[in-house]
Write a structure and sequence with these properties.
The chain has about 475 residues and is mainly α. It is about 45% helix and about 10% strand. It has four domains: about 150 residues, Rossmann fold (3-Layer(aba) Sandwich), CATH 3.40.50; about 150 residues, 3-Layer(aba) Sandwich (Rossmann fold); about 55 residues; about 90 residues, Arc Repressor Mutant, subunit A, CATH 1.10.10. Strand 1, helix 1 and strand 2 form a beta-alpha-beta unit. It binds glutamic acid.
Length: about 475
């Protein structure tokens, strides 16, 4: 029987969670869910100078927003120092590591000499071969005794056997002068201690894998399986960065993307299942496998993400969409904080808006007429459409509506058509001014939908305000 799958996402909290990180988290999450395994979240915060609490909070908020729930953690490396120290001592006592007393000045000098000779600067092993009494003063660092010849082979589930020459490595540092362990060391100790079976991560870490493989062997921890996934590139084929637009997960939330759309989009960056583009989470979990992950670089395509977002906006049930729209309505200043509206109430205008909006921000802005008590007018539209000539038609629409007992699509339509016909005008010539009066703008859902959404009282109130406004302008 094989061990149950245990995978981890191990972000360093040195900035926001970017889409590349999200995709790494997602592939781990899908792998765990597919095999009924465990997904562990570990915050790699040992680099005190670059890690921040805000960044940890942002990572957690991003994962929650995306629905990438974890089964264990978040573990924090800063809370695990005793274990690292114990493992350093283990390697020291087994003579697989040694204290190094070389001073930074000595090391600088050796590095310069090597460079002058055109050699790759690497530690020359002075302290590895030291015999006799230990020098005065404290050791500056602890180094791992790495083999100096031969090769180390890292088995990668996506790339096959990746062979590294040991002579490229030197006796690398595992414990710094200030007593803090180094990145490669803590990753191995943690992955071992947490029983990680598969390390799925970006291929920017492939070059760390030989050192890590040697550390597993040195610590007598069985090596996990590795899968190094390719980087995400921008459209110009350079590594995805801010230059290519938004890259943080929460920036997409704030721009009105649905988490399901972003997850779906990122799942398809490097993984595929036939030609299928849209997947429910259940399908993604069912179909996900590392065999269908490619090693060729994936190119980030914002238009495709936007298209997917629109698909999700169209096909998500309004009440579910309302959960994501609500915070955006508040952020956009359309609803006040603590508005107390239920999701059902927020969902009401969605069916008349979801076929066209590309983002939830756009949907929020287009629904402002429905949620706001005070309309904001597009001034140009108001002076263009709300003229003295149009006033009698508005009055007719208002009196016609007040006579209809229960507003229905057909009865409202009949009234508009009648008024237009009597005035000898095209329907649009009457409908557009009413639209501006009721929504403040020239673009809105269909005019009959607007009337039905607002209801009789609000519609009549806005029409009468507009009639008053035209009068006041003379
Ligand atoms: N902390 C590393 C990073 O954020 C990941 C390390 C790993 O996955 O092994 O890039």
């Amino acid at each position: 029987m094989t061990d149950p799958v245990r995978v981890r996402f191990a972000p360093s909290p040195t900035g926001f969670l970017h889409v590349g990180g999200v995709r790494t988290a997602l592939f781990n999450w899908l792998y765990a869910r597919h095999y009924g395994g465990q997904f562990i979240l570990r915050i790699e915060d040992t680099d005190a100078s670059r890690s921040t609490e805000e960044s940890i909070e942002e990572i957690l908020a991003s994962m929650k927003w995306l629905g990438l729930n974890w089964d264990e953690g978040p573990h924090r490396q800063t809370k695990r120092q005793a274990l690292y120290r114990e493992k350093v001592d283990q390697l020291l006592s087994e003579e697989k590591a040694y204290p190094c007393f070389c001073t930074p000045e000595e090391l600088d000098k050796k590095r310069e000499e090597a460079q002058a000779k055109g050699l790759k600067p690497k530690y020359d092993g002075t302290c590895r071969n030291r015999s006799g009494a230990t020098p005065e003063g404290a050791a500056s660092v602890v180094r791992f005794k790495a083999p100096q010849e031969g090769t180390v082979t890292v088995r990668d589930l996506l790339r096959g056997n990746v062979v590294f020459q040991n002579e490229e490595l030197d006796d690398f540092i595992i414990l710094r002068t200030d007593g803090t362990p180094t990145y490669n060391f803590v990753v191995v100790v943690d992955d071992g201690d947490m029983g990680i079976t598969h390390v799925i991560r970006g291929d920017d870490h492939l070059s760390n894998s030989p050192k890590q493989a040697l550390l597993y062997d040195g610590l007598d921890i069985p090596r996990p399986e590795f899968a190094h996934i390719s980087m995400i590139l921008g459209s110009d084929k350079t590594r995805l960065s801010k230059r290519h637009g938004a890259t943080s997960a929460l920036a997409y939330r704030d721009m009105g993307y649905l988490p399901d759309a972003l997850v779906n989009y990122l799942a398809r960056l490097g993984w595929s299942h036939g030609d299928q583009e849209i997947f429910t989470r259940k399908e993604m979990i069912e179909y996900f496998s590392l065999e269908s992950v490619t090693t060729s670089a994936a190119v980030f395509n914002p238009e495709k993400l936007q298209w997917l977002n629109q698909q999700y906006i169209q096909n998500t049930p309004p009440v579910d969409l309302a959960r994501h729209l609500a915070p955006i309505l508040v952020k956009e200043g359309i609803l006040p904080e603590g508005h107390g509206l239920s999701l059902e109430e927020i969902a009401k205008p969605i069916p008349s808006l979801n076929q066209r909006a590309e983002t939830l921000v756009e949907m929020a802005q287009k629904s402002a007429f429905y949620f706001k008590t005070e309309l904001e007018f597009d001034e140009k539209a108001r002076s263009k459409f709300l003229t003295a000539e149009i006033k009698p038609h508005l009055e007719k629409i208002a009196s016609g509506l007040s006579e209809i007992n229960v507003l229905e699509h057909d009865s409202v339509e009949t009234l508009f058509k009648q008024v237009a016909e009597e005035a000898g005008l095209k329907l649009g010539k009457v409908a557009q001014p009413v639209r501006v009066a009721l929504t403040g703008s020239t673009t809105s859902p269909g005019i009959y939908d607007v009337v039905l959404l607002l209801g009789k009282d609000t519609t009549l109130k806005r029409l009468s305000e507009m009639i008053g406004f035209i009068k006041s302008r003379g």
